[in-house]
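Sequence in, structure out. Go.
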Amino acid sequence: MSAASEPEPSTSAVRHAEARPVGTTALLQALRYLFVTSRPLGWIAAVGLYRIGMAYGNTPDTPATWAVSAALSWPFCLFLFGLNDLADAASDRVNPRKGSWIHGAREPFAGTRWARAAPWLGGAAVLSCALALPWRGAVILAVVLAVAWTYSSPPFRLKEVPVVDGLSTATIMIGLLGAGYESGSALMAIPAESWAVAPTLAGLHIFASVVDVGSDREAGHKTLAVRAGPRVATVTALSLSLVSAATVPVLDYAPAIALYVLLQPLVFAAAWLFPKRLPPRRALNVVGLAGIVTLLYMLLVYLR
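Output:
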């Protein structure tokens, strides 16, 4: 068939192509990156911790608590993980865990220019909603946002301060729980169990750095695993986990949380003693799955 006899594009096809602006593809790509960056599983954790805190404190729902619950999904997780990914861009490109909706994109801010401002917009949305809460809940959420910023961003970059990095993560998670607890009109004392799980959360974070030691070392991130080696980081994570486990007999944990607090040091001990049979990545997957199951169970039991 000659070029002259080739069929012309249909009028509808031409109109469809003309109707789609050139920038639409870039916009959709940026939104997809931002969705992956926010780690959708993190939405469940952040909103779940806040709502569980409300249930513990017998806090009734109000328009303010519903607004905060919504803001703690995509906006908060975009702020929390987006700032971290901006600072970790060099290591994320070579991190084998990246490139999924569970662990985030390798280059999450490819696309439109405004995408790099998205984490700050997410943080502003959370703070705006928090201002409608009683002052105690609002202050706790403001502290959570501040810790999230200092954890990831210079000049503080607490992520590279050994042990403090894990305690920062624990502060964020316990803060979300406490914000829900203090979102009511009555002044409540946050239960001791909420504070006692801090070493477990810190240990989990430190152990995750063992999995990322290769990419962190290549990018020059001075995590504990990079500074002292994976074995020392594993022992530190195990020691912190044992601190929380020791409180199980004396504090009134929910059964599901008590089981997790006891499971984590067992898994870390096995990974330390038998690294070939239970390599760090597999051990992290085990405790990660156990943590998700625990949180989902708590949501089913405590959420109204």
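Check: Confidence is low (pLDDT under 50) at residues 1-7, 9-22. The chain is about 65% helix and 0% strand.
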